[in-house]
Every structure is written in structure tokens, then in C-alpha cells.
Amino acid sequence: MTTATPSAPVPAAPTNKLGFTKQDYVGSKSTLCAGCGHDAITAQIINAAFESSIEGHRVTKYSGIGCSSKTPAYFMNQGWGFNSVHGRMPSIATGASLANRTLINIGVSGDGDSMSIGMGQFVHAVRRNIPMIYIIEDNGVYGLTKGQFSATADKGSHLKSGAVNDFPPIDPCTLAIELGCGFVARCFSGNPKQLNAILKAAFAYQGTVVLDVISPCVTFNNHDASTRSYKHVKDHDFPLHDLGFIQYSEVEEVEIPAGQTEIVTFPDGSKVAIKAIHEGYEPTDRFGAMKAIHESMAKGEFLTGLLYINPTQPPLPEVLNLVDEPLATLGEDLLKPSPAELDKIMQALM
Amino acid sequence: MTAALAAPSPAGGAKTRINDFSIQVATVNGSGSQTANTVLLRAIFQMGVFVSGKNLFPSNIAGLPTWFTIRASAQGYVARKASNEMLILMNPETAKEDIAKADPGALVIYDEPLQLDKLRGDLAYIPVPFQKLVTASCPEPKLHKLVKNMIYVGVASRLLGIDMEEVKKAIAKQLKGKAKAIELNQTACVAGYDWAMENLEDQDHIKVVRDNKTQGLIIVDGNEACALGALFAGVTVVGWYPITPASSLVETFIEYAEEYRKDPKTGKSTVAIVQMEDELASAGVVLSAGWAGARSMTSTAGPGISLMSEFIGLGYYVEAPGVFFNVARTGPSTGLPTRTQQSDVELCAKCSHGDTLHINLFPGTMEECFQFSYDAFDLAEKFQTPIFVVTDLDLGMQNWASKPFAYPAKPYDRGKVLNQQQLADMKDWGRYKDVDGDGICYRSLPGTPGGKGAYLTRGSGHNAYAQYSEKPEDYVEVMDRLKRKYETAKAFVPGPVFRNQGSDKGVLAFGSSDPAVIEAQDILLAQGLKTDYLRLRALPFTAEVDTYVKEKQVVYVVEQNRDGQLANLFRETYPEHATKFKSVLHYDGHAIDAKSIVDQITAFEQK
Ligand SMILES: Cc1ncc(C[n+]2csc(CCOP(=O)(O)OP(=O)(O)O)c2C)c(N)n1
Ligand code: SF4
């Protein structure tokens, strides 16, 4: 005979400022390979959105085609998603962000999706500073088509089959800085703390965020000869600085250890505190950032952290001087010229 | 000075063609002749005479031959006419060729030093000392090149009997407020007019006589008419990429948007217009903006549609609205990029891979360019799908006289969009559920609060709840519903226009072929052949089209392409009537003319 033992009350799941639990930020079950780096990124998107108290219904999620591009299904079911065509996610984000400038846009793409077929759209989205967090889940291969080289694969790296890559890689971060992107960061999917902090900073930023996340493909690019295997990346991951996100409303004054921490203020008033590990690293110094990335690349290192930031650039809806309300919901009264105005136009054509 | 009309009376004793002739002006592109030609066209128009203008221009910026034809027609025919009664030859490069092609009896105005008068004996030559006249009338040598063209406007006006006051008015209209330019051009024009008065005998070949056919009409091109339709339809997002002959559609829209799309309170813009990096990106912007609730559009031509086709298939399958203007030109490939054709029929009907069917609108007049552009946005949102508005270079870039556009009073139809309350009240919402049995589902817009309505849009297999599915029955259900939606559209797209003469012989055409078909029908009737004409205005084929196909004994499908693409669509849709469709084709890059239609139909009839 068993008697029910009174169990301790289950503690209520913690809620954020909006009263949501973390569960409110999850999506459907992942169908990616067990251990895929992309799933680790999904987990941090969920955490960061929860911790930043993002309003789920305002979130839109965009992607192209590839394993990485499937991930918008796996986080934030409260938001609207658009899984589009290979390499053309940026234009999908552009149109929707213009239609409704109040949306919070997250794009997830692969290195093949963004740096090969989608290079044109990537470049132009960054150049236009469309408001979105653009995450490249960078594994150096095409996952979904079973292991061909992508344009970020390192020269001399091997496929499982043994084929050697003859071409130098394209680096999304230096490219983004070159294009004038105001928020460029690199992370490693195996370093959740750093990824979480960068994502929270990214949520507070208003233009294009380019976030290159080195995300090993356990199925096609985790062999010993790969430069993107877990082991290789872990050995060569070189974190640049710690990064803490401080909500402006909560903090009046931030203590900055002299010479080590920089506070960057976002247009909405929120701030990111950056603690440089390297003495003298200036994340607001565009050329310095380029130099640091190139130097680490030359050493075969992945320089991670917030590599470059310039919070002053107006995002596309501001450049176009759009009305504050979403264009999508403007009434006919604001959009349709009057009969007298048509008459005026007709008179001019007579 | 020579007495000009040395040749025998050009009409060879025939009576004067009053308000019924065609003038061709051959110039070098980049020489500013477009202004002069438009002034001549406008002056005739202001005389109350029905007129149409066609600019045949090369695909380069300056230095190559260009021809402009002006057709005046008392009967109101506005199609291209293959023969011309007056030639104005300003381009030494083509002058001999132009002379060789001229119709007997034509009046030929040309620059005196060209000495063309020995080439043929059956033309009436009018050598004009342009250089002398321009030097005398324009003090600034660097402007000579530009105003030289105005001199032929003056000479031609005098010969045709056009009132100089009307010409001056047309110049002022054309050069909108630029006082110095107006004066210079008017002076040059008067110089030509006066010279002609002093030196030329009157001619009785062709004449303009005041009429009242154009009172209250406007002159407009199709791209402007479409741009205006989109303006009134409340388009809020435009993504585009330049391509001839579609660029001026968005460019004109931008000009109007400057004036009519600013919030009066803040001065901020109520439309986002972005010149994208290519057509792929433009299509992405259109579909995602439509998905997010904006009224969105792009304008392009065949090569752009080719590039967009992957996206257009996505738009069809995920059911995102957007308006795609295709101002068609000749293909395949670059083809003749500045010439006209209707060769994207099959492309636009089924654009993209897989099974796709698209709603197409085919305006045939300027009023329809305006109205259909307005309607396209309603249809896109109502049917949640890409809509093609298909015009061509002839409609899009040429000058057409038209009735002023009627105010589109009908309020916008934003389709089946659910708001927060409606979503909350619905027990079981599925993005792709066919609630009403018409194939059109209810959608929600990103950003709608309340925690309901969010879904993931995907180009891969999905079920009625927008969930990923590779189940055969789910796939078939969606594909069958999309077909049902296309069927539903038959009741909402514009039906055909008829011009019947009581015959069981049908003629069928669309878009810019209309004026030539009308004229051809009249010529055939005069020759004893009655025809019934159906002008198709949309895909899918409506019930009236159905009846027509079934009732006619033969259907001559007139279109401007090589392969009879529209006829192919008909044969496929009506296989049991397939042998009825006879293709009447025109595809040399020039706008279709009545004679080529008459000749082909006559040949079929004689078989
Ligand atoms: C137009 C087009 N070409 C090719 C493909 C096939 N394709 C699907 S995914 C993919 C590569 C994806 O690689 P990546 O972006 O690196 O993503 P991963 O799967 O590695 O996350 C390709 C080439 C396609 N879907 N569409
Ligand atoms: S193939 Fe590679 S990238 Fe794709 S899910 Fe598997 S591990 Fe991830």
C-alpha cells in the first residue's frame, strides 16, 4: 500500500518584466541533428529574448534555406516567421520592416545562404541598415545539401570526402564593417554566456546587427581535418572582452573600472558595457577593429566579442523619413488623394 | 531660294487626306528631338484632331537613329500605320534608307545639303536650309543643335495648316515654365513657319483642319497611368530595379509621391520606395511587405520577371499579396530592349517552377491602365497572391490620347485580414483553412497583439495550420485549394470587351493590339468579312470567354509574339476546341498595325 507523500510545492517558473516565462519564448521541437551548433544558438535566442522581456507578438523571424534557416521555427512561437528562398532572406526582412517599422526583426541564415547565393542581398541589407539582428550560423559547409564547401570555409580545409578547399574564405565580420554596419560581433555557439550577452545588446540596437556565430556542423564538418570542428574552434576561440548588458531604466550610473570598460549608449537610452580584455581595444574604432580581426585571422584565431559598434546610424525607415505608424495599417484617408487632386493631375495632362 | 514642291502633286490627283495621315520624323537620339516631336503631336491634338505618337528608339543614349511617328486620324484610329504621308529626315545616316522605304507621293522634308531629291522621282521633296534658319533665329551657337528641330516643327505646321498659336501653346506646355527655353524654341519654330510661308507652295496632300474630337482629353502614357492607379490605390511599399520600358512607371510614381504622399501634419512619407540591388530583391520586398500588410508593388520587364520567378512561386504558395507590373518588351534574353512585344504571356500565366497559376490583368487603354492598376491592389489582397499587371512598351511609353480618368470611388478591399478581436473570438484559426469554401483563407498580420494569430510562413510543404508537413494528403489539399482560389478569381477579374458585327468568326486579342484589331475589323468588314471581336482583359478566363470560345466557329488569336503564346493557353484550357484557334502574329518589335492583321486573316479565309 502506498500513501501519497505530500510533495513540496512546485516553484512557479520565473517570469520577466512582461510576466512571461521562458516557456513563452520557445518554438517547436528542433529537427536538426543532435548536437548541431545551431540548436545552441536557438537556446540563447530564447534566453536573451526572455531576459530582455521582448514582446513576442512584435517579433518577426526571417530565414532563407538551409539547416540554419530552419531554426526560426524553433524559437518564439509568439512571433511571425517567414522561411523564404535560398539566400534572399534580407529582402524579405527589408519589405516587412518597411511595412511595419514597429516590428523587432531577427534573421537567421547560414554561411552558404548569406555568403554564397545570398551575398548580394546580405551586402545591400547591411548597406541600407535595415533594422534587424542578422545571425549567420557559420559552419563552413552546406549542411542541408550534405556537406559541400561554403564561401566561409577556410582555404586548405578538407571535406569528409577528402576534397580540399582551394579558395580563401569570405569573412562576414570584416565585410560588414567595411559596408558600414554599426554592430558587428562574432561568437561561438559553444560559449553561451558571451552569445547571450551579445544577443541582449543586439535587441537594444536599432539598425542592422551582424552576428557571425561559429556553429560547428557535427555531421559534416566535425572531423579532425576541419577548421570548424568543436575541438578546433574551442582551441582557437579567443574571447576579446566580457560584455554586460545594462538596461538604462535600471541603472543610473555605471561604475567603469578605469581604462577597462566602455559604455556605449544606444539611441533608446540603453547602454552596453564592454570590458575589454585587451588593453586599449576600442570597439568604436572601425579601422582598429578591422586590424584586430585581420591579425587574429592571420594567426588562425576567431576573435569573438563585440568587434565594432557605432550606435548613431539611422536605420532605413528613418532614412526614408517614414511616418511613425506602420505603413501596413494606414487608413485610406491618408493614402488616397481626393477627387479634386485627381482633377488637378488630369488638368495638367490636358 | 528654290520653290519646294517640284514634284508632281503627291497624292497623284487623289483628294486631300484631311486629319488622316501619318508623319515620320527620323532623327539622331540624344538630339532633343523628343521635345520637338511631342510639340508637333500636341499642336495637332490641340487642333481637336485625334492623334497618337510612337517613338521608335534604339537601346543607347546618344548617336543612333530614332524615329517618331505621329498618326492623325479623323476616325479615331490610333494604331501604328505601316505607311507614312510625310517624312521629316534629319538623320543623314538613315536618310537614303528612309527614302527607299517611303510610300509614293510622300512629302519629304529634309536638310538641304543632304540632296536627297535625285533618289526617287515619285516623292515631293522639301529641302530646308536648317543651318541658315537656325543661325538667323538663335543667337547662341551652342543651342543650335537643340532648336534646329523646332524649325521642322514650324515648316511642317505651315504645310499642314496648323495654327501657329497652337504650336506656341504646345511649346509652353512642353517646357513647363522655363521662360528662356520657351522663347528660344518658339522663335525657331516661327522662323521655320515663316520660311515655309514665303518659300513653299501650298500642298494638297495632307492637311490638318480644326475639329472637336479631343476636347477635354488628356495625353498620357501607360506607365504614368499605371503609376497614378497605384497612387490612388494607396501603395505603401515599392521595391524596384530599373529596366526599359518599366523604369518610368516607378519614376513617375516617385514624382507624384513627392506631392501626394506626405503626412500633412509631419511631412513624413506614407510610402517607402527603395531602388533595390536587383529584381530578386525587389520581389522579396514586394512579397514580404504584402505579407506584413502593406500594399506593395514593383515594375519590371521580362528579364526582371525571369529573375523574380523563384520568389513569385513562393508568393503563390505561401499566399503573399503583391502587384507586379510587367511592361513587356521583346525577348528572349535582351532581345530588342527598346521595342515592343507581348511575349511574356506564358511566363506570367505560370511564373515559377511547380504548378502555379497567376491572376493577370491586361489593360488595353489608358483608362484601363489606371483602373486596373487600382484594382490590382484589391485583387492582390483579396486573393493573397502575386498579381501581374501586364502592359508593354507600346502602351507604357508611347503617347496616347485618353478621356480623363474617373475617380476610383470604390473603397479599398483589404481582404480577409483578422484583427486582434476577431482572432480572439475564433475557436480554431488556421492560416490555410478554407473556411468559406472559396479557396481564400483568413490571414493575420505580424505584430497583431493578443498572443493569437502568429504562424510561420514557409515555402515548404504545410498543412491548413501552416505547420510543416510532407504528408501527401496535406500537400494535395493545399494545391487543390489554390486551384479553387484561382477558380474563384474568375468572378472578380475584369471580363472581356466585345465589338461584335454579328459573325461566327471570332477575333481575340489583348492589350496594345486593340487599336489595330479595331481598325482591321473595319477594313475586313469593308471587304465583306464580318467578325466578332473579344478583347481579353484578364486571366483566368471568365465565363464570357468560355461561352465565346464554345460558340465561335473559328477564333483568330491576334498577339505580338512568335509562338502564339495566348493561343497556346487557349488550346490548353479548351482542348476540345483546340483546332479553332488560328494565330495571327506580329513580332518584329514594331507595334502591330491593322494591315498585317487583315492580310493574315484574309489568307486564312482563302484557304
Ligand atoms: C535556388 C536554390 N539553389 C540551391 C538550393 C539547395 N540548397 C538548400 S540548402 C543549401 C545550402 C545551405 O547551406 P548553409 O546556408 O550554409 O546552411 P546550413 O545547412 O549549413 O545551416 C543549398 C545549396 C536551394 N534550396 N535553392
Ligand atoms: S547537417 Fe550539420 S548543420 Fe545540418 S543539422 Fe546536422 S549538424 Fe546541423
From TrEMBL, chain A:
Please give the superkingdom of this protein's source. Answer: Bacteria
Please report a single Pfam family linked to this protein: TPP_enzyme_C
* Keywords tagged on the record: Oxidoreductase
Annotated Thiamine pyrophosphate enzyme TPP-binding domain ranges read 65-213
UniProt name for this protein: 2-oxoglutarate ferredoxin oxidoreductase subunit beta
What is the native source organism of this protein?
Geothrix edaphica
From TrEMBL, chain B:
Which keywords annotate this record?
Answer: Oxidoreductase, Pyruvate
Q: State if Oxidoreductase is listed as a keyword.
A: yes
Q: Which positions fall inside the Pyruvate/ketoisovalerate oxidoreductase catalytic domain?
A: 30-194
At the top level, the lineage of the source is Bacteria
Outline the extent of the Pyruvate flavodoxin/ferredoxin oxidoreductase pyrimidine binding domain. 229-392
Give a Pfam family name: POR
Instruction: Give the matching InterPro entries.
Output: 2-oxoacid/accept_OxRdtase_asu (IPR022367), Pyruvate:ferred/Flavod_OxRd (IPR050722), Pyrv/ketoisovalerate_OxRed_cat (IPR019752), Pyrv_Fd/Flavodoxin_OxRdtase_N (IPR002880), Pyrv_flavodox_OxRed_cen (IPR002869), THDP-binding (IPR029061), Transketo_C/PFOR_II (IPR009014)
User: Would the keyword Transmembrane helix turn up in this protein's UniProt record?
Assistant: no
Q: What is this protein called?
A: Pyruvate ferredoxin oxidoreductase
User: Which species is this UniProt entry from?
Assistant: Geothrix edaphica
